[in-house]
Amino acid sequence: MKEIFPGVFEQGSKLFTKNLVPGVKVYGERLVKEKGIELRQWDFFRSKLGAAIKNGLRHLPIKPGSTVLYLGAAEGTTVSHVSDIVGGKGVVFGVDLSERVMRKFISLSEQRKNIFPIVEDANKPWKYKAFLAEHKIGVLFQDVSQKNQAQIFLKNAEYFLKKGSAGMLVVKAKSISQNVDVASVFGKEVGQLEDSFHVEQIINLKPFEKDHVLANCIKL
Ligand SMILES: C[S@@+](CC[C@H](N)C(=O)[O-])C[C@H]1O[C@@H](n2cnc3c(N)ncnc32)[C@H](O)[C@@H]1O
Question: Where are the domains of the chain?
């Protein structure tokens, strides 16, 4: 078992994070013990962050102790691994629009004390600004299936990120256009970030996710 980023482990072709709540699975993943420590297998077919790591992400800004604002938390599959990585000294605020998917996420936050659910529209960061007021967000992560993905990301960055903070944007081409060439959708969407961010790396998520990239950026 090799630690490839602080809190992220690799064995053969598999990824793992250290289980913050030993004995408890989140989405049916495998639990393994290594030198007395319990790890959760990270299914990169079900997590775009996992897929980006698998496909050669060079720099993971999410670290033990980080404060993360995660837009598009859904049921918390990926957030659960982010929660493992940031650990007891870190915090993850998970925003999602859908009350239905948030039900499961709210139960997850009851087990994992570093997760805080926010049922809101990520298009309206002013609605959760007060909730985050005492926290300095180190990483903005976004995975929302909306047409205006870059715009939502920029809006939240303006509210919550300082110069030098990290941004990770998942772009889903098919949410933007069904017909246009996928590469030009990625170019156009990531291009919108360039006035506000230094884009360090753009990672295509295939074969784990079709027509998705993750842009790893630093706020200017
Ligand atoms: C692809 S899923 C996210 C999966 C999740 N990131 C994971 O890896 O476990 C996209 C989520 O974005 C949410 N979403 C879509 N539009 C949104 C918006 N305007 N504000 C907040 N969440 C939104 C949807 O409800 C959905 O749960």
Answer: 46-219
| Tens-digit pLDDT profile for residues 128-176 | 999 998 899 999 999 998 889 999 999 999 999 999 999 999 998 877 7
Task: Please provide the DSSP assignment of the chain as one string.
Answer: -EEEETTEEEETTEEEEE-SSTT--SSS--EEEETTEEEEEE-TTS-HHHHHHHTT-------TT-EEEEE--TTSHHHHHHHHHHGGG-EEEEEES-HHHHHHHHHHHHH-TTEEEEES-TT-GGGTHHHHTT----EEEE----TTHHHHHHHHHHHHPPTT-EEEEEEEHHHH-SSS-HHHHHHHHHHTTTTTEEEEEEEE-TTTSTTEEEEEEEE-
Does ligand 1 have an atom closer than 6 angstroms to the CB of 119? Answer: no
CATH label, 46-219, candidates 3.40.50.150, 3.20.20.30, 3.40.50.2300, 1.20.140.10: 3.40.50.150
Say how many Å lie between the CA of residue 185 and the centre of ligand 1: 19
| Residues 48-59: tens digit of each pLDDT | 999 999 999 999
- Is residue 98 within 6 Å of ligand 1 at its C-beta? yes
pLDDT of residue 170: 96
* Interval 181-212: pLDDT, tens: 788 888 888 899 999 999 999 999 999 999 89
Distance 70 CA to ligand 1 centre (A): 10
